[in-house]
Amino acid sequence: MARSEPVTLPATDCDGLELRRAERADLLAVFRIESASFPQPWPYDAFERFLGTPGFLVAELDRQVVGYVIADVVRNHGSPVGHVKDLAVHPDRRGLGVGSSLLSAALSAIATSGARSVRLEVRESNAPARRLYRRFGFDPLRRVSDYYDDGEDALVMVRELPADAGDR
Hints:
The chain is built from four helices and eight strands; from the N terminus they run ββααβββαβαββ. The protein is α+β, with helices and mostly antiparallel strands. The relative contact order is 0.15.
């Protein structure tokens, strides 16, 4: 079976990193990263629903999946709005620029779909993720109490996309 076409990468400190659309064969690795990254991981079958979508990307290093992102575009009052649903990097590969590369590629995919803004939810306690999102121009919009099953609050963060971003 042929691999998905690679995605153009931004500059990264991680030599040999390749991004591409997720494939069925990647799901077990994605699920393992999810389980190692979050106290309440998505179930395995949740990832299957996003296969084939432009915003479900994996990062490979040395032919191993080391991270993934799931992002899509939804309609809000008739206008397309991007939503970063999930982003994780294997704990052993954090700090190398993998998360930044995945987020950059997801934002490009969202912009290409015509969205002019992007939102996401992040655990209030997840300081590393909040720092990453701030570096990418996301600002806190509001807190959602008891968002997670364990009672932790989420921060909803948003950022605007340039008006010409989808024309690239």
